[in-house]
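Sequence design from tokenized structure. All designs in this work follow the same two-part layout: the structure record, then the generated sequence. An example of the structure record is given first.
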């Protein structure tokens, strides 16, 4: 494979691609159960589309962080923060990063169009348009939502609720209240992931005028907010089990992951998060998020 192509393919880091998969997995699992069968083709296409959109958003974010000086100012480089540094390290030029990001977004949109043609659903078309626009508006000037305000609510809705509900609709052909609890849990956890990943970037974000939650409110409040998001996800799971709703099986299996959730809460202390070069809390968080999706999907299938 051409070395330049390989470098571009590696630009969207796996740690930033993984969060896009759980919403589709959970929505697909519950939707397939409601429909009585799994449409494997559209499920796989949905995963591929969301990964392309996330990759495009990630690479364009790197490009615009380069233009704003954010990534050049960032001295706290971690696996989960500070961008890919591909531009700063001379691996890709800014133009190559921009082109790669746009290509990924367009690819995600085209895959979404294939899904629309297969499903023949105007609802899926509308949700796809919203998803692509959301990925663009997150980073693209003059909108640059990630620079203008703490984006946890935006991420909760656009990268959590929307893909979970969309994946459910793609399988079931309808919306249902049963998707509410898993969609909210997924939204909370992806918002928590974005929040935690932005903590190492506080100094650079403040210098570049990027108004993330940690940059605006500091490490202490960010750590407390993170714990609240994780804790609330478990409260919703407990309520789902107690109400014996259709997600009860998935919620029960999610509760089995609670020891890992507790590890996330313990590791995300203000003291640890204030240190440079720390990766443990973020690694535990990603593991918890992925395990939540796997456990919930297994619980839905077994229920």
């Amino acid at each position: 494979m051409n070395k330049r192509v390989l470098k571009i393919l590696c630009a969207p880091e796996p740690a930033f691609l993984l969060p896009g998969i759980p919403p589709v997995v959970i929505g697909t699992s519950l939707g397939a159960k409601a429909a009585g069968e799994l449409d494997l083709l559209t499920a796989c296409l949905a995963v591929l589309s969301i990964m392309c959109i996330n990759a495009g958003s990630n690479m364009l974010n790197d490009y615009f962080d380069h233009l704003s000086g954010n990534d050049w100012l960032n001295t706290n480089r971690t696996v989960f923060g500070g961008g890919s540094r591909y531009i700063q390290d001379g691996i890709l030029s800014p133009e190559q990063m921009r082109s790669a990001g746009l290509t990924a977004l367009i690819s995600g949109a085209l895959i979404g169009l294939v899904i629309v043609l297969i499903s023949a659903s105007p609802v899926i078309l509308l949700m796809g348009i919203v998803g692509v626009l959301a990925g663009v508006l997150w980073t693209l000037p003059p909108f640059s939502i990630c620079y203008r305000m703490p984006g946890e609510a935006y991420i909760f809705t656009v990268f959590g609720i929307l893909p979970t509900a969309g994946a459910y609709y793609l399988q079931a052909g309808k919306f249902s209240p049963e998707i509410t609890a898993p969609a909210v849990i997924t939204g909370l956890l992806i918002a928590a992931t974005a929040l935690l990943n932005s903590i190492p970037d506080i100094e650079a974000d403040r210098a570049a005028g990027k108004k993330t939650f940690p940059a605006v409110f500091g490490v202490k409040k960010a750590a407390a907010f993170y714990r609240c998001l994780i804790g609330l996800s478990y409260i919703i799971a407990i309520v789902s089990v107690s109400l014996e709703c259709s997600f009860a099986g998935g919620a029960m299996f999610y509760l089995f992951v609670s020891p890992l959730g507790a590890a996330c809460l313990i590791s995300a202390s203000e003291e640890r998060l204030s240190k440079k070069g720390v990766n443990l809390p973020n690694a535990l968080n990603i593991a918890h998020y992925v395990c939540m999706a796997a456990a919930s999907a297994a619980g839905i299938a077994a229920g």
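The chain has a mean pLDDT of 89. We note this feature because it recurs in several other targets discussed in the main text.
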